[in-house]
Design brief:
It is a single chain. The chain is an alpha/beta fold. The strands form 5 sheets. The protein has a 5-stranded parallel β-sheet, sandwiched between helices. Helix 1 packs across helix 7. It is globular.
Protein backbone atom coordinates (compact mmCIF):
# COMPACT_ATOMS: atom_id res chain seq x y z
CA UNK A 1 0.00 0.00 0.00
CA UNK A 2 1.36 3.41 -1.00
CA UNK A 3 2.06 5.66 1.99
CA UNK A 4 3.02 9.30 2.51
CA UNK A 5 4.99 8.85 5.71
CA UNK A 6 6.52 5.87 7.51
CA UNK A 7 7.16 6.27 11.26
CA UNK A 8 10.03 4.21 12.63
CA UNK A 9 10.18 3.55 16.37
CA UNK A 10 10.77 0.89 19.02
CA UNK A 11 7.85 -0.73 20.81
CA UNK A 12 8.87 0.37 24.30
CA UNK A 13 8.39 3.99 23.20
CA UNK A 14 4.73 3.30 22.53
CA UNK A 15 3.84 2.09 25.99
CA UNK A 16 0.87 3.78 27.69
CA UNK A 17 2.36 6.08 30.34
CA UNK A 18 -0.86 7.89 31.25
CA UNK A 19 -4.02 5.78 31.40
CA UNK A 20 -6.20 8.84 30.72
CA UNK A 21 -4.54 9.23 27.30
CA UNK A 22 -5.79 5.77 26.14
CA UNK A 23 -2.87 5.20 23.74
CA UNK A 24 0.92 5.07 23.81
CA UNK A 25 3.34 7.90 22.98
CA UNK A 26 3.98 6.90 19.35
CA UNK A 27 0.32 6.06 18.63
CA UNK A 28 -0.69 9.47 20.03
CA UNK A 29 1.99 11.18 17.95
CA UNK A 30 0.68 9.44 14.81
CA UNK A 31 -2.88 10.58 15.49
CA UNK A 32 -1.83 14.17 16.14
CA UNK A 33 0.32 14.24 13.00
CA UNK A 34 -2.54 12.77 10.99
CA UNK A 35 -4.88 15.50 12.24
CA UNK A 36 -2.57 18.39 11.32
CA UNK A 37 -1.38 16.93 8.01
CA UNK A 38 -4.93 16.26 6.83
CA UNK A 39 -5.74 19.95 7.22
CA UNK A 40 -2.66 20.98 5.26
CA UNK A 41 -2.92 18.42 2.46
CA UNK A 42 -6.70 18.71 2.23
CA UNK A 43 -6.85 14.93 2.01
CA UNK A 44 -6.34 11.97 4.32
CA UNK A 45 -2.61 11.26 4.67
CA UNK A 46 -1.40 7.67 4.62
CA UNK A 47 0.83 7.19 7.66
CA UNK A 48 2.41 3.81 8.40
CA UNK A 49 4.26 2.41 11.41
CA UNK A 50 7.31 0.14 11.47
CA UNK A 51 9.19 -1.01 14.57
CA UNK A 52 12.92 -1.59 14.74
CA UNK A 53 12.59 -4.46 17.21
CA UNK A 54 12.20 -7.36 14.76
CA UNK A 55 13.92 -6.02 11.64
CA UNK A 56 16.86 -7.99 10.29
CA UNK A 57 19.26 -7.47 7.39
CA UNK A 58 17.74 -8.31 4.01
CA UNK A 59 14.18 -8.32 5.40
CA UNK A 60 11.81 -8.21 2.38
CA UNK A 61 9.05 -6.74 4.57
CA UNK A 62 11.31 -3.75 5.27
CA UNK A 63 12.16 -3.29 1.60
CA UNK A 64 8.49 -3.25 0.62
CA UNK A 65 7.63 -0.70 3.32
CA UNK A 66 10.47 1.65 2.38
CA UNK A 67 9.63 1.38 -1.33
CA UNK A 68 6.08 2.48 -0.59
CA UNK A 69 6.95 5.49 1.61
CA UNK A 70 8.88 8.52 0.30
CA UNK A 71 9.24 10.04 3.79
CA UNK A 72 10.68 8.50 6.95
CA UNK A 73 10.08 9.88 10.45
CA UNK A 74 12.36 8.42 13.13
CA UNK A 75 11.33 8.57 16.79
CA UNK A 76 14.71 8.92 18.46
CA UNK A 77 15.28 7.82 22.06
CA UNK A 78 17.99 5.95 24.00
CA UNK A 79 16.05 2.74 23.40
CA UNK A 80 15.78 3.41 19.66
CA UNK A 81 19.53 3.56 19.11
CA UNK A 82 20.04 0.31 21.03
CA UNK A 83 17.77 -1.64 18.66
CA UNK A 84 19.82 -3.28 15.90
CA UNK A 85 16.95 -2.95 13.44
CA UNK A 86 17.04 0.87 13.64
CA UNK A 87 20.36 1.13 11.84
CA UNK A 88 19.25 -1.42 9.23
CA UNK A 89 16.13 0.67 8.46
CA UNK A 90 18.13 3.90 8.20
CA UNK A 91 20.87 2.41 6.05
CA UNK A 92 18.40 0.83 3.65
CA UNK A 93 16.31 4.03 3.40
CA UNK A 94 19.34 6.17 2.57
CA UNK A 95 20.81 3.53 0.24
CA UNK A 96 17.58 3.21 -1.74
CA UNK A 97 17.14 6.96 -1.86
CA UNK A 98 20.53 7.64 -3.42
CA UNK A 99 19.76 5.31 -6.35
CA UNK A 100 16.14 6.36 -6.92
CA UNK A 101 16.21 8.76 -9.87
CA UNK A 102 12.46 9.38 -9.73
CA UNK A 103 12.75 11.19 -6.42
CA UNK A 104 14.22 14.62 -7.01
CA UNK A 105 14.16 15.66 -3.34
CA UNK A 106 17.45 15.03 -1.48
CA UNK A 107 17.38 12.20 1.05
CA UNK A 108 18.14 14.41 4.03
CA UNK A 109 15.00 16.42 3.24
CA UNK A 110 12.88 13.28 3.26
CA UNK A 111 14.02 11.96 6.63
CA UNK A 112 12.82 13.67 9.81
CA UNK A 113 14.39 13.29 13.25
CA UNK A 114 11.92 13.49 16.14
CA UNK A 115 13.47 13.51 19.61
CA UNK A 116 11.21 11.75 22.10
CA UNK A 117 14.02 12.01 24.63
CA UNK A 118 17.51 13.52 24.23
CA UNK A 119 20.25 11.43 22.67
CA UNK A 120 23.78 12.84 22.61
CA UNK A 121 24.99 13.95 19.18
CA UNK A 122 27.82 11.41 18.93
CA UNK A 123 25.49 8.57 20.02
CA UNK A 124 23.01 9.22 17.21
CA UNK A 125 23.22 7.18 13.99
CA UNK A 126 25.63 9.01 11.70
CA UNK A 127 23.06 9.66 8.97
CA UNK A 128 20.76 11.38 11.48
CA UNK A 129 23.29 13.66 13.18
CA UNK A 130 23.10 16.61 10.77
CA UNK A 131 19.30 16.51 10.45
CA UNK A 132 17.20 19.16 12.15
CA UNK A 133 15.83 17.92 15.49
CA UNK A 134 12.15 18.22 16.36
CA UNK A 135 12.37 18.06 20.14
CA UNK A 136 9.21 16.65 21.72
CA UNK A 137 10.40 16.72 25.33
CA UNK A 138 10.64 19.52 27.87
CA UNK A 139 12.92 20.92 30.56
CA UNK A 140 11.56 20.61 34.10
CA UNK A 141 12.24 24.01 35.66
CA UNK A 142 12.21 22.63 39.22
CA UNK A 143 14.64 19.75 38.73
CA UNK A 144 16.54 21.03 35.68
CA UNK A 145 16.04 17.61 34.06
CA UNK A 146 14.61 16.82 30.64
CA UNK A 147 11.33 14.96 30.73
CA UNK A 148 9.08 13.09 28.30
CA UNK A 149 5.54 14.36 27.82
CA UNK A 150 2.88 12.28 29.53
CA UNK A 151 0.08 14.83 29.33
CA UNK A 152 -0.24 16.11 25.76
CA UNK A 153 -2.80 18.79 26.66
CA UNK A 154 -1.14 20.62 29.53
CA UNK A 155 -0.09 24.27 29.24
CA UNK A 156 3.50 23.09 28.97
CA UNK A 157 2.64 20.71 26.12
CA UNK A 158 0.82 23.46 24.23
CA UNK A 159 3.93 25.65 24.35
CA UNK A 160 6.45 22.92 23.54
CA UNK A 161 4.98 19.71 22.12
CA UNK A 162 2.28 21.15 19.85
CA UNK A 163 4.35 24.05 18.55
CA UNK A 164 7.06 21.64 17.42
CA UNK A 165 4.57 19.10 16.05
CA UNK A 166 2.90 21.75 13.88
CA UNK A 167 6.32 22.80 12.54
CA UNK A 168 7.09 19.18 11.70
CA UNK A 169 3.74 18.79 9.91
CA UNK A 170 4.38 21.91 7.82
CA UNK A 171 7.83 20.69 6.83
CA UNK A 172 6.43 17.28 5.85
CA UNK A 173 3.70 19.03 3.87
CA UNK A 174 6.23 21.07 1.88
CA UNK A 175 8.23 17.98 0.94
CA UNK A 176 5.14 16.00 -0.06
CA UNK A 177 3.98 18.86 -2.27
CA UNK A 178 7.41 19.04 -3.87
CA UNK A 179 7.40 15.29 -4.52
CA UNK A 180 3.96 15.53 -6.11
CA UNK A 181 5.03 18.57 -8.18
CA UNK A 182 2.25 20.60 -6.61
CA UNK A 183 2.32 24.21 -5.53
CA UNK A 184 2.76 24.66 -1.80
CA UNK A 185 2.98 27.81 0.24
CA UNK A 186 6.60 28.00 -0.85
CA UNK A 187 8.44 30.31 1.53
CA UNK A 188 11.61 30.03 -0.57
CA UNK A 189 10.07 31.65 -3.66
CA UNK A 190 8.08 34.44 -2.02
CA UNK A 191 9.25 37.85 -3.23
CA UNK A 192 9.34 40.56 -0.56
CA UNK A 193 9.78 44.29 -0.68
CA UNK A 194 11.95 45.19 2.28
CA UNK A 195 14.79 47.42 3.34
CA UNK A 196 17.05 45.58 0.88
CA UNK A 197 15.07 46.59 -2.22
CA UNK A 198 12.63 44.68 -4.40
CA UNK A 199 13.27 41.05 -3.59
CA UNK A 200 16.74 41.86 -2.22
CA UNK A 201 20.05 40.81 -3.70
CA UNK A 202 19.58 37.11 -4.34
CA UNK A 203 18.69 34.55 -1.72
CA UNK A 204 20.96 36.05 0.96
CA UNK A 205 18.65 39.07 1.22
CA UNK A 206 15.97 36.71 2.52
CA UNK A 207 18.14 34.60 4.81
CA UNK A 208 18.32 35.07 8.57
CA UNK A 209 20.68 33.47 11.06
CA UNK A 210 18.65 32.62 14.17
CA UNK A 211 21.18 31.43 16.73
CA UNK A 212 20.58 28.25 18.66
CA UNK A 213 19.51 28.85 22.26
CA UNK A 214 19.54 27.17 25.63
CA UNK A 215 16.67 24.76 26.28
CA UNK A 216 14.75 27.32 28.35
CA UNK A 217 14.27 29.57 25.29
CA UNK A 218 13.54 26.82 22.76
CA UNK A 219 9.87 27.81 22.55
CA UNK A 220 10.68 31.51 22.02
CA UNK A 221 13.13 30.59 19.26
CA UNK A 222 10.50 28.44 17.55
CA UNK A 223 7.97 31.29 17.70
CA UNK A 224 10.41 33.70 16.05
CA UNK A 225 11.44 31.08 13.49
CA UNK A 226 7.82 30.53 12.43
CA UNK A 227 7.26 34.28 12.24
CA UNK A 228 10.24 34.70 9.92
CA UNK A 229 9.21 31.76 7.74
CA UNK A 230 5.71 33.16 7.54
CA UNK A 231 7.13 36.28 5.91
CA UNK A 232 9.16 34.31 3.41
CA UNK A 233 12.59 34.23 5.04
CA UNK A 234 14.87 31.22 5.09
CA UNK A 235 16.08 30.55 8.62
CA UNK A 236 19.53 29.13 9.38
CA UNK A 237 20.78 26.85 10.76
CA UNK A 238 18.25 24.46 9.22
CA UNK A 239 20.13 21.43 10.54
CA UNK A 240 21.56 20.22 13.84
CA UNK A 241 24.86 21.91 14.64
CA UNK A 242 27.87 19.59 15.18
CA UNK A 243 29.08 19.05 18.74
CA UNK A 244 32.73 20.18 18.51
CA UNK A 245 33.94 23.78 18.44
CA UNK A 246 35.87 23.63 15.15
CA UNK A 247 32.98 22.12 13.19
CA UNK A 248 30.51 24.53 14.80
CA UNK A 249 32.65 27.52 13.85
CA UNK A 250 32.90 26.39 10.24
CA UNK A 251 29.14 25.77 9.95
CA UNK A 252 28.11 29.02 11.67
CA UNK A 253 30.55 31.12 9.63
CA UNK A 254 29.14 29.69 6.40
CA UNK A 255 25.58 30.45 7.57
CA UNK A 256 26.51 34.00 8.59
CA UNK A 257 27.98 34.61 5.13
CA UNK A 258 24.60 33.76 3.64
CA UNK A 259 22.60 35.94 6.05
CA UNK A 260 21.69 39.61 6.29
CA UNK A 261 21.01 39.57 10.01
CA UNK A 262 21.72 37.42 13.04
CA UNK A 263 19.29 37.12 15.95
CA UNK A 264 20.42 35.94 19.38
CA UNK A 265 18.20 35.04 22.35
CA UNK A 266 19.94 35.21 25.75
CA UNK A 267 18.29 33.64 28.82
CA UNK A 268 19.24 32.85 32.41
CA UNK A 269 21.13 29.65 31.56
CA UNK A 270 24.68 29.83 30.24
CA UNK A 271 24.63 26.21 29.07
CA UNK A 272 27.31 23.57 28.82
CA UNK A 273 30.62 24.27 27.10
CA UNK A 274 30.91 22.91 23.58
CA UNK A 275 33.43 20.16 22.99
CA UNK A 276 36.92 21.59 22.48
CA UNK A 277 36.19 25.07 23.86
CA UNK A 278 35.47 26.82 27.15
CA UNK A 279 32.34 28.62 25.96
CA UNK A 280 28.71 27.61 25.48
CA UNK A 281 27.00 27.30 22.10
CA UNK A 282 25.14 30.58 22.76
CA UNK A 283 28.35 32.42 23.63
CA UNK A 284 30.27 30.95 20.68
CA UNK A 285 27.60 31.91 18.11
CA UNK A 286 27.52 35.46 19.44
CA UNK A 287 31.31 35.76 19.23
CA UNK A 288 31.30 34.48 15.65
CA UNK A 289 28.52 36.88 14.65
CA UNK A 290 30.42 39.76 16.26
CA UNK A 291 33.60 38.85 14.36
CA UNK A 292 31.62 38.49 11.12
CA UNK A 293 30.02 41.91 11.60
CA UNK A 294 33.36 43.56 12.40
CA UNK A 295 35.06 41.96 9.37
CA UNK A 296 32.25 43.03 7.05
CA UNK A 297 32.49 46.61 8.29
CA UNK A 298 36.22 46.62 7.66
CA UNK A 299 35.72 45.24 4.14
CA UNK A 300 32.95 47.72 3.38
CA UNK A 301 35.13 50.65 4.45
CA UNK A 302 38.02 49.39 2.36
CA UNK A 303 35.77 48.96 -0.69
CA UNK A 304 33.74 52.15 -0.17
CA UNK A 305 34.67 53.72 -3.54
CA UNK A 306 33.45 50.60 -5.32
CA UNK A 307 30.06 50.86 -3.61
CA UNK A 308 29.89 47.10 -3.18
CA UNK A 309 29.06 46.96 0.52
CA UNK A 310 27.09 44.14 2.08
CA UNK A 311 24.48 44.75 4.76
CA UNK A 312 24.57 42.81 8.03
CA UNK A 313 23.10 43.59 11.44
CA UNK A 314 22.54 41.84 14.76
CA UNK A 315 19.68 41.80 17.22
CA UNK A 316 20.23 40.47 20.74
CA UNK A 317 17.19 39.80 22.95
CA UNK A 318 17.05 39.52 26.73
CA UNK A 319 13.82 38.75 28.63
CA UNK A 320 12.52 41.72 30.68
CA UNK A 321 13.19 39.77 33.86
CA UNK A 322 16.30 37.61 34.25
CA UNK A 323 15.54 36.10 37.64
CA UNK A 324 17.94 33.45 38.98
CA UNK A 325 20.48 33.82 36.17
CA UNK A 326 23.59 31.80 36.94
CA UNK A 327 26.76 33.61 37.99
CA UNK A 328 28.52 32.62 34.77
CA UNK A 329 25.57 33.85 32.72
CA UNK A 330 25.54 37.18 34.58
CA UNK A 331 29.21 37.67 33.69
CA UNK A 332 28.47 36.80 30.05
CA UNK A 333 25.67 39.39 29.90
CA UNK A 334 27.79 42.06 31.58
CA UNK A 335 30.63 41.44 29.11
CA UNK A 336 28.13 41.54 26.28
CA UNK A 337 26.90 44.99 27.32
CA UNK A 338 30.38 46.42 27.92
CA UNK A 339 32.13 45.06 24.82
CA UNK A 340 32.15 48.09 22.51
CA UNK A 341 33.70 46.25 19.55
CA UNK A 342 31.48 43.21 20.10
CA UNK A 343 28.40 45.43 20.00
CA UNK A 344 29.34 47.07 16.74
CA UNK A 345 26.38 46.74 14.42
CA UNK A 346 24.35 45.11 17.20
CA UNK A 347 21.35 46.19 19.23
CA UNK A 348 20.56 44.73 22.66
CA UNK A 349 16.86 44.78 23.50
CA UNK A 350 15.51 43.77 26.91
CA UNK A 351 11.81 43.91 26.05
CA UNK A 352 8.78 41.57 25.87
CA UNK A 353 8.99 38.95 23.10
CA UNK A 354 6.05 40.43 21.17
CA UNK A 355 7.81 43.81 21.03
CA UNK A 356 11.00 42.08 19.88
CA UNK A 357 9.09 40.35 17.07
CA UNK A 358 7.82 43.76 15.99
CA UNK A 359 11.38 45.07 15.94
CA UNK A 360 12.44 42.15 13.72
CA UNK A 361 9.59 42.80 11.31
CA UNK A 362 10.43 46.50 11.09
CA UNK A 363 14.06 45.61 10.40
CA UNK A 364 13.23 43.19 7.62
CA UNK A 365 9.82 43.74 6.12
CA UNK A 366 7.90 46.76 4.88
CA UNK A 367 5.20 45.07 2.83
CA UNK A 368 3.95 41.90 4.54
CA UNK A 369 0.67 42.10 2.65
CA UNK A 370 2.44 40.58 -0.37
CA UNK A 371 3.09 37.37 1.53
CA UNK A 372 0.67 34.49 1.84
CA UNK A 373 -0.05 33.40 5.40
CA UNK A 374 1.87 30.26 6.30
CA UNK A 375 -0.69 29.35 8.95
CA UNK A 376 -3.48 28.66 6.45
CA UNK A 377 -3.37 25.86 3.92
CA UNK A 378 -5.01 26.63 0.56
CA UNK A 379 -8.59 25.52 0.23
CA UNK A 380 -9.34 23.12 -2.60
CA UNK A 381 -12.44 21.34 -3.81
CA UNK A 382 -12.72 17.77 -2.61
CA UNK A 383 -14.42 14.79 -4.19
CA UNK A 384 -14.80 13.08 -0.82
CA UNK A 385 -17.64 13.86 1.56
CA UNK A 386 -16.40 16.10 4.35
CA UNK A 387 -17.13 15.57 8.03
CA UNK A 388 -16.54 18.32 10.56
CA UNK A 389 -15.66 16.51 13.80
CA UNK A 390 -16.18 18.99 16.64
CA UNK A 391 -14.59 18.18 20.00
CA UNK A 392 -13.17 19.83 23.09
CA UNK A 393 -9.42 19.68 23.77
CA UNK A 394 -9.92 17.30 26.72
CA UNK A 395 -11.55 14.78 24.36
CA UNK A 396 -8.84 14.88 21.70
CA UNK A 397 -7.58 11.30 22.08
CA UNK A 398 -10.91 9.46 21.64
CA UNK A 399 -12.01 12.00 19.00
CA UNK A 400 -8.92 11.28 16.90
CA UNK A 401 -9.62 7.55 17.20
CA UNK A 402 -13.05 8.28 15.69
CA UNK A 403 -11.34 10.44 13.05
CA UNK A 404 -9.18 7.50 11.97
CA UNK A 405 -12.30 5.33 11.66
CA UNK A 406 -14.05 7.95 9.52
CA UNK A 407 -10.99 8.27 7.28
CA UNK A 408 -10.92 4.50 6.79
CA UNK A 409 -14.53 4.75 5.61
CA UNK A 410 -13.43 7.19 2.91
CA UNK A 411 -14.40 10.54 4.44
CA UNK A 412 -12.26 13.66 4.69
CA UNK A 413 -12.35 14.91 8.28
CA UNK A 414 -12.09 18.55 9.33
CA UNK A 415 -11.04 19.15 12.95
CA UNK A 416 -11.04 22.18 15.23
CA UNK A 417 -7.91 24.28 15.69
CA UNK A 418 -6.30 23.25 18.98
CA UNK A 419 -3.78 26.11 19.00
CA UNK A 420 -3.99 29.75 18.00
CA UNK A 421 -5.68 33.00 18.90
CA UNK A 422 -9.39 33.22 19.70
CA UNK A 423 -10.04 34.67 16.23
CA UNK A 424 -8.08 31.90 14.48
CA UNK A 425 -9.90 29.18 16.43
CA UNK A 426 -13.24 30.80 15.68
CA UNK A 427 -12.49 31.15 11.96
CA UNK A 428 -11.53 27.47 11.71
CA UNK A 429 -14.82 26.58 13.42
CA UNK A 430 -16.81 28.73 10.99
CA UNK A 431 -14.98 27.22 7.99
CA UNK A 432 -15.74 23.73 9.25
CA UNK A 433 -19.45 24.50 9.54
CA UNK A 434 -19.41 26.23 6.15
CA UNK A 435 -17.82 23.44 4.08
CA UNK A 436 -18.83 20.17 5.76
CA UNK A 437 -21.40 17.66 4.54
CA UNK A 438 -21.77 16.11 8.00
CA UNK A 439 -21.23 17.70 11.41
CA UNK A 440 -20.48 15.49 14.42
CA UNK A 441 -20.31 16.96 17.92
CA UNK A 442 -18.21 14.46 19.89
CA UNK A 443 -18.14 14.47 23.69
CA UNK A 444 -16.81 12.22 26.43
CA UNK A 445 -15.56 14.53 29.20
CA UNK A 446 -16.60 17.89 27.77
CA UNK A 447 -18.88 20.10 29.84
CA UNK A 448 -22.59 19.88 29.03
CA UNK A 449 -22.75 23.63 28.47
CA UNK A 450 -19.96 23.32 25.88
CA UNK A 451 -22.02 20.65 24.08
CA UNK A 452 -25.09 22.88 23.97
CA UNK A 453 -23.10 25.81 22.60
CA UNK A 454 -21.76 23.64 19.75
CA UNK A 455 -25.24 22.30 18.96
CA UNK A 456 -26.52 25.86 18.73
CA UNK A 457 -23.66 26.66 16.34
CA UNK A 458 -24.99 23.96 14.00
CA UNK A 459 -28.20 25.96 13.73
CA UNK A 460 -26.23 29.11 12.88
CA UNK A 461 -24.35 27.46 9.98
CA UNK A 462 -26.53 29.02 7.23
CA UNK A 463 -25.46 32.44 8.48
CA UNK A 464 -21.81 31.55 7.85
CA UNK A 465 -22.32 31.38 4.08
CA UNK A 466 -23.48 27.78 3.54
CA UNK A 467 -25.18 27.29 0.20
CA UNK A 468 -26.82 23.95 1.13
CA UNK A 469 -28.10 22.47 4.42
CA UNK A 470 -25.79 20.16 6.37
CA UNK A 471 -26.78 16.66 5.26
CA UNK A 472 -26.48 15.12 8.73
CA UNK A 473 -25.97 16.52 12.23
CA UNK A 474 -24.93 14.09 14.94
CA UNK A 475 -24.31 14.31 18.68
CA UNK A 476 -21.92 11.44 19.41
CA UNK A 477 -21.45 10.91 23.16
CA UNK A 478 -19.47 8.42 25.21
CA UNK A 479 -21.03 9.35 28.53
CA UNK A 480 -24.65 10.13 29.25
CA UNK A 481 -25.51 13.83 29.10
CA UNK A 482 -28.84 13.91 30.94
CA UNK A 483 -29.46 17.64 30.67
CA UNK A 484 -29.63 17.36 26.85
CA UNK A 485 -33.20 16.18 26.29
CA UNK A 486 -35.01 14.78 23.28
CA UNK A 487 -36.71 18.16 22.93
CA UNK A 488 -33.28 19.78 22.65
CA UNK A 489 -32.33 17.34 19.91
CA UNK A 490 -35.52 18.16 17.98
CA UNK A 491 -34.83 21.87 18.35
CA UNK A 492 -31.29 21.48 17.02
CA UNK A 493 -32.41 18.88 14.42
CA UNK A 494 -29.65 16.57 15.65
CA UNK A 495 -29.49 12.77 15.82
CA UNK A 496 -27.99 11.44 19.04
CA UNK A 497 -25.73 8.38 19.20
CA UNK A 498 -24.47 6.99 22.52
CA UNK A 499 -21.39 4.80 22.32
CA UNK A 500 -19.45 2.96 25.00
CA UNK A 501 -16.61 1.08 23.29
CA UNK A 502 -13.70 3.43 22.58
CA UNK A 503 -11.68 0.60 21.04
CA UNK A 504 -14.08 0.00 18.17
CA UNK A 505 -16.32 2.45 16.33
CA UNK A 506 -17.12 -0.03 13.55
CA UNK A 507 -19.79 -1.58 15.81
CA UNK A 508 -21.81 1.65 15.78
CA UNK A 509 -24.44 0.83 13.17
CA UNK A 510 -26.45 3.99 13.77
CA UNK A 511 -23.57 6.18 12.67
CA UNK A 512 -22.80 3.80 9.80
CA UNK A 513 -26.36 4.09 8.46
CA UNK A 514 -26.21 7.88 8.54
CA UNK A 515 -22.88 7.95 6.74
CA UNK A 516 -24.03 5.43 4.11
CA UNK A 517 -26.86 7.79 3.14
CA UNK A 518 -24.44 10.71 2.89
CA UNK A 519 -22.15 8.68 0.62
CA UNK A 520 -25.08 7.71 -1.58
CA UNK A 521 -26.13 11.37 -1.89
CA UNK A 522 -22.56 12.30 -2.84
CA UNK A 523 -22.46 9.63 -5.53
CA UNK A 524 -25.82 10.80 -6.90
CA UNK A 525 -24.58 14.39 -7.10
CA UNK A 526 -21.44 13.26 -8.92
CA UNK A 527 -23.38 11.30 -11.51
CA UNK A 528 -25.76 14.19 -12.25
Amino acid sequence: MKQDVLINYVEIDDKVVNQEQHTGWVSSFKRFLNMVLSQLLQRNPEIGLITSDEIKAGDTFLTENLNNAPLLVTILSPEYIQATGSLEILNQFFAQSTTDSERQVPTNERCFKVMKFPVEYEEQPEVLRPLLSYNLYYLDRETGERQEFEDFFSNNAEKNYWTTLVDLAYDIYYVLQKLENKEAIDRENIQLTGIFGEGGEGTSARTVFLAETSQELAVQRTIIKRELQRYGYQVLPNYTLPNDANSIEKSVQEDLERSVISIHLIGREYGENVKGADVSIVDLQNKLASEHSYQLRENNEANAPVNNSKSFSRLIWLPPSLVEASEKQQRFIENLREDAQGLSGAEILQIPLEDFKTTIRKSLIKAPSQVRNRENAPKVSLDKSQIYLIFDKMDTQPALALMEHLQELGFYVITPLLMGTILEVRQQHIDGLKYCDVAIVFAEKADEQWVKVKLKDLMKAPGFGREKPIQAKVLFTINEYKSITNEDLKTYNVRRIEHTNLNSFSEELGLQNILDKVMQNKQSESSN
